[in-house]
Amino acid sequence: MFSKVAYFSYVVSRSADYCRTSPSSSQGCPLLCKVALGKxxxxxxxSTSRCLRQIDGCRVQEV
Length: 63
Prior knowledge:
This protein is mostly helical and 63 residues long. The protein has one domain (1-63). It is built from 2 helices and no strands.
């Protein structure tokens, strides 16, 4: 939905929707992580540039 970034959720079934290896594949690659959050900013639209500009000091690296 928001491009190639890391998505984190406290519910594995929600994260599973985002872990496809490609749009045509039914296989996925979930990664179990421990995530420490500071200030959060929720983005509810696919306009990532607008959402990312609102996060002070955020660095995003695509994988």
